[in-house]
Write a structure and sequence with these properties.
The protein has strands at residues 2-7, 10-13, 18-26, 32-39, 46-51, 58-60, 68-73, 78-83, 92-100, 116-117, 121-126. By secondary structure, it is mainly beta.
């Protein structure tokens, strides 16, 4: 079993930045692709960003492209999400997700592709 713990959320003014972290622990073996999703009140889970096991491939939702950056440090079993130029529409609970993979360059953007999830961290952007 893999446990994921997110941190770094908080309250920020529009135009501000935050850096989210997600640390994985437990039975980590093999290669893991990682992703970030978010859920705003009254809305469904939304894909935000994904990164391959190698870290060399990334994918972003159009709504965050150019503002958010996903990265990872495999030695620390940690994935990051840098959030810049935040606006109130970014307010949501942000979730980290992980899945094993045999493909070092693949990224995954579908919620059901990830079996492991963190509990989320709240990001609130005030106008």
């Amino acid at each position: 079993q893999v446990q994921l713990v997110e941190s770094g959320g908080g309250l920020v003014q529009a135009g501000g930045s935050l850096r989210l972290s997600c640390e994985a622990s437990g039975r980590i073996s093999g290669n893991y692709a990682m992703g970030w999703f978010r859920q705003a009140p009254g809305r469904e889970h939304e894909f935000v960003a994904a990164i391959s096991w190698s870290g060399g491939n990334t994918r972003y939702a159009d709504s965050v492209k150019g503002r958010f950056t996903i990265s990872r440090e495999n030695a620390k079993n940690t994935v990051y999400l840098q959030l810049n130029s935040l606006n109130p529409e970014d307010t949501a609970v942000y979730y980290c997700a992980a899945r094993s993979t045999n493909f070092r360059t693949w990224t995954y953007s579908i919620r059901n592709e990830y079996p492991y999830w963190g509990r989320g961290t709240q990001v609130t952007v005030s106008s």
